[in-house]
Amino acid sequence: MGALTDQAALAAALADTPSEQEARDAIARLDDADLHQIDQAILAALDRSWKPAGLITTGLVLAAPDAHEDLPELVYALRIHALAASSRIETRGDPRVLRTFEIRLPTARDDD
To answer: Are 30 and 4 in contact (CB under 8 A)?
Structure first.
């Protein structure tokens, strides 16, 4: 869970959500295998064209397996940031605005 994010920041982000306890419980159950599964789902949703990160996170939340059905979209957004930090995906735009923040698989050259 340490790789996910700062616990205090995540708790603060969840403070105003209606299903805060369910989300906290789901996050507490995450292990390295779950994070790997989430990362793989993000990568599988991408190709080398730019896509809005918000579209990807929403789609993943809607298609989440039962074990992840209570995870908030924030978890997927944080995993996107972790993938970007490890250079597994490329980003452009403001990462705080999922609607306009864009992501894609890395390319050999930037032709867009």
So the answer is: yes
CB 68 within 8 A of CB 38: yes
pLDDT in tens, 19-55: 678 888 888 888 899 999 999 999 999 999 999 999 9
- Burial call 62-73: b when 16+ CB within 10 Å, e when fewer: eebeeebebbbb
CB 103, CB 90: distance < 8 Å: yes
Q: Is pLDDT above 60 for 83?
A: yes
Burial class (CB in 10 A: 0-12, 13-18, 19+), 79: buried
Q: Where are the domains of the chain?
A: 7-104
Residue 90: name the closest of 78, 106, 76 by CA: 106
Structure pTM? 0.79
Query: Which has the closest alpha carbon to 39: 5, 1, 89, 2?
Result: 89
